Amino acid sequence: MANFKNEAVIKHAESEKKERWTTIAKWTYWILTLSFTTTMFIAGIMLLAGVDSNVDGITHLGYPAYICKILGVAKVLGSVAIVYGRFPILKEWAYAGYSFNLIGAAASYAFYGDSFGKMLVPIIILIAVLASYRQWKKGWM
C-alpha cells in the first residue's frame, strides 16, 4: 500500500512539473511570436506607407522602390498568418517567408558593405523567428 501511495505522489509531482513546463513553453512561444510579428507588421505598414527612412534603407542597397510595396504586403500578411494560426500550411509558409526575408536582409547588408550592426538586427529577429517556429512545431504552445 505504501509503495502505491509513493508512486501516486511521484506521478502527481511529475504531472505538476510537466504542467509548469508547458505553461512556461506557451508563454515563451507567445512572447517570441508577438515580439517579431509585431515588429514585422509595423515594418510592413511603414513600407506600404512609404516612410522615407524605410524606402531609403531599401534603395540604399540597390533595390527598386516598388519592392517596398511587395515586402510590405508580405510582412503584414505573414504576421496575420502566424498569429491567427488557423491554417498550418499558410503559417509554415509565413515562417519560411520571414526566414528568407531576414536572411536576404542580412546578406544584402553584408554584400553592400554595411556595418555588422546593420546585419545583426535581421539576424536577431531571425533567431526569434526560428525559436518561435521550433516551439510551434514541437507542440509546446
What does the oligomeric state look like here? Answer: single chain
What proportion strand?
under 5%
Tally of individual helices: 5
Helix content: over 70%
Cα radius of gyration in angstroms: 21 Å
SSE sequence, one letter per element: HHHHH
What structural class is derived from the secondary structure elements? mainly alpha
Average pLDDT number? 92
Spans of at least 5 consecutive residues with low confidence = none
Give the CA-CA distance, first to last residue. 38 Å
Inertia-based shape: elongated
Q: Please give the largest β-sheet.
A: none
Number of domains: 1
Number of strands: 0
Please render the helix and strand layout as text.
Blueprint: H1 2-49, H2 52-60, H3 67-84, H4 88-112, H5 116-138
Word description of this protein:
By secondary structure, this protein is mainly alpha-helical. It has one domain. 87% of the residues lie in helices and 0% in strands. The protein is built from 5 helices and no strands. α3 (67-84) packs across α4. The longest helix has 48 residues, at 2-49. The relative contact order is 0.12. The model has no long low-confidence stretch (mean pLDDT 92).
Outline:
With 141 residues, the protein is mostly helical. The chain contains 5 helices and no strands.
Question: Which structural traits does this protein have?
Answer:
141 residues; mainly alpha; 5 helices; 87% helix; 0% strand; elongated
